[in-house]
DNA sequence: GCCGTTTTCGGCCCGACTGTTTTCAGTCG
């Protein structure tokens, strides 16, 4: 009997183990090994509990060796991690939670526990408020205040990552603000923002110029800043009113490319690059590539990659998921761009829950240079959205015919976002679906069915020959709703077999499929559509967010259906 | 504890900043 422990829970166990080992002052490399394993597990798309059930060899996974593979099996098979139980006899395992307080590391946690038996945030708050933390050597009044502040931040949920689209306005404001500082040459936002991850933990801004201090002074003068965490000549950290943390780093122009590379990451990508440097008896750091003391490259990212025998890697691919091998072979994919997109296959109007009329949506799509726009209002199941029954849908088709007669250059496609009902039925009859150009099938209700039922539900729906596009497949909403529990491998294989197109929904709250799942879909041979799921004219501009995720999945233009002409699209959407 | 076309032992990133220190440990990224 296997326990259905999620990958996230398993990763959390290893993180906790690493924290406790660190508090016990264990070998730091052993600690790191557990943290690396946790990272691998968090980013893994198949479930470990399934892999264990299939008796798969886990040691092929990065950072997973014999020992940790055995411990994963233990967690899946018994629900326990005995190493954690064992260490918990010496150190209370809650101490791991204290490590999340900013400014408090393993040494501090240990000292607080030894002196005052501090085991919880509550304990720490009490001792700090009594002003007794400073009794410990190495702690003082400032540290005490910083810890109280850290507790407050943690309680306010400061750990949550910010959605990329929410961080964008703040990031761009800061970027142009810094660009106007004295002597500034270049400013780039690096980190996961530049890699276009769906969320960002903080913003990393790299600046080159002749006067680092002037940049930092200007940073501190920005109106969005709530608090300064640290402030140096080349590096500062601030917190914005929104709670977003911003790290600004200044370098000389000759190091800008190296710093940009370094702070764009990912960490794993950088580790690989550094290893390539070491193989050549060189050193790569945020200042440049060096042979001994002699700089070889540093001003431009391209130069650094070139000297390491690599083609420049688009930031979206820098996750050490095979991109370095492709780069070495000069075989990187030419990633899809927002300019490649020629139409939109999922949009709503005032007929259901959209905010703009059919005609306004059509004109707006036309203005954006699109060749086609599929009108896919909700089917009848989604009553709260005023979903269309067969009768209203046929009336809408008439309106679309009349509009198409007037439109020049843009063709409106007749469509519907059909609901996949609880057992895999669709919420409109086949004879109506047969009259449509585009049928997007999505799940909106019964999100909490078990994995087996959920999988069967989708597979059964896919048996309907009118099922053309699988809309927002996991129904997740970032920071708000977990994905449905479903065997995505099987469903994507089924989609590939049947010629069903899989959606990357470009709504910033959805981005569903997410990057790793989109990559999986490509590996399974699926074609993708990047859809805005627009509920207004303004939403049509969300396309770029979906393109970002497609790029992270390594998608070329050819793999995205709506980069094709109208004739291409008609051919690639399966005809029953 | 993981990893391996210089390998199965000996590596594993390291620099910036803070606070509490009179020269550095801890934390962070």
Description:
It is a single chain. The chain has 576 residues and is an alpha/beta fold. It has 24 helices and 17 strands. The chain has a 7-stranded parallel β-sheet. Strands 2-4-7-6-5 form a 5-stranded mixed β-sheet, with helices on both faces. A 3-stranded antiparallel β-sheet has the order 8-9-10. Helix 1 runs antiparallel to helix 2 (28-42), helix 1 (7-23) packs across helix 7 and helix 8 (121-129) packs antiparallel against helix 9 (141-155). The longest helix is centred in the N-terminal third of the chain and has 17 residues, at 7-23. The protein is globular, with a radius of gyration of 26 Å. The two termini are 42 Å apart. The model has no long low-confidence stretch (mean pLDDT 94). The protein binds one DNA strand of 29 nucleotides through residues 27-34, 36-37, 62-68, 102-108, 137-140, 142-143, 146, 202, 204, 229-237, 247, 249, 263, 267, 270-271, 274, 279, 285-286.
Please summarize what this structure is.
By secondary structure, the chain is an alpha/beta fold. It is 42% helix and 14% strand.
């Amino acid at each position: 009997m296997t326990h259905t422990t999620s990958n996230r829970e398993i990763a959390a166990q290893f993180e906790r183990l690493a924290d406790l080992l660190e508090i016990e002052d264990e070998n730091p490399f052993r600690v790191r090994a557990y943290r690396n394993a946790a990272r691998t597990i968090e980013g893994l798309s198949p479930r470990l509990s399934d892999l264990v059930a299939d008796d798969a060899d886990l040691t092929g996974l990065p950072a997973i060796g014999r020992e940790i593979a055995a411990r994963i099996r233990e967690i899946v098979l018994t629900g326990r991690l005995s190493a954690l139980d064992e260490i918990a006899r010496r150190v209370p395992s809650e101490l791991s939670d204290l490590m999340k307080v900013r400014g408090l590391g393993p040494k501090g946690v240990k000292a607080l526990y030894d002196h005052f038996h501090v085991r919880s945030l509550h304990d720490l708050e009490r001792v700090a408020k009594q002003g007794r933390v400073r009794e410990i050597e190495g702690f003082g009044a400032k540290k005490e205040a910083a810890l109280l502040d850290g507790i407050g931040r943690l309680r306010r949920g400061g750990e949550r990552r910010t959605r990329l689209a929410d961080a964008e306005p703040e990031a761009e404001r800061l970027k142009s603000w810094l660009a106007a500082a004295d002597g500034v040459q270049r400013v780039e936002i690096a980190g996961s923002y530049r890699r276009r991850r769906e969320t960002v933990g903080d913003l990393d801004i790299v600046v080159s110029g002749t006067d680092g201090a002037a940049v930092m002074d200007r940073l501190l003068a920005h109106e969005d800043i709530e608090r300064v965490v640290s402030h140096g000549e080349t590096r500062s950290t601030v917190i914005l009113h929104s709670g977003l943390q911003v790290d600004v780093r200044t370098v000389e122009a000759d190091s800008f490319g190296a710093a940009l590379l370094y702070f764009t990451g990912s960490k794993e990508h950088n580790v690989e690059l550094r290893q390539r440097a070491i193989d050549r008896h060189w050193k790569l750091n945020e200042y440049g590539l060096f042979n001994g003391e002699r700089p070889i490259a540093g001003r431009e990212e391209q130069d650094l990659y070139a000297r390491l025998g690599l083609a420049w890697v688009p930031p979206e691919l820098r996750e050490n998921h095979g991109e370095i091998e492709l780069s070495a072979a000069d075989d990187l994919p030419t990633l899809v761009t927002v300019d490649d997109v020629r139409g939109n296959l999922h949009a709503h109007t005032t007929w259901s829950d959209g905010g703009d009329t059919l005609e306004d949506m059509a004109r707006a799509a036309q203005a954006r240079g699109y060749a086609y726009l599929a009108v896919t209002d909700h089917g009848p199941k989604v009553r709260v959205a005023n979903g269309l029954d067969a009768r209203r849908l046929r009336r809408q088709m008439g309106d679309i015919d009349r509009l198409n007669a007037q439109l020049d250059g843009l063709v409106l496609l007749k469509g519907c976002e059909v609901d996949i009902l609880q057992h895999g039925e669709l919420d409109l009859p086949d004879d109506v679906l047969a009259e449509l150009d585009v049928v997007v099938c999505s799940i909106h209700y019964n999100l909490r069915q078990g994995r087996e039922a959920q999988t069967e539900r989708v597979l059964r729906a896919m048996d309907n020959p009118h099922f053309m596009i699988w809309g927002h497949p996991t129904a997740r909403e970032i920071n708000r709703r977990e994905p449905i529990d479903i065997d995505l491998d099987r469903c994507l294989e089924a989609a590939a077999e049947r010629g069903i197109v899989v959606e990357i929904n470009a709504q910033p709250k959805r981005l569903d499929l997410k990057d790793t799942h989109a990559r999986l879909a490509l590996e399974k041979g699926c074609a993708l559509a990047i859809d805005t799921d627009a509920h207004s004219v303004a939403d049509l501009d969300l396309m770029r967010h979906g393109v970002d995720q497609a790029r992270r999945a390594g998608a070329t233009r050819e793999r995205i259906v709506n980069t094709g002409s109208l004739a291409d699209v008609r051919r690639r959407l399966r005809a029953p």
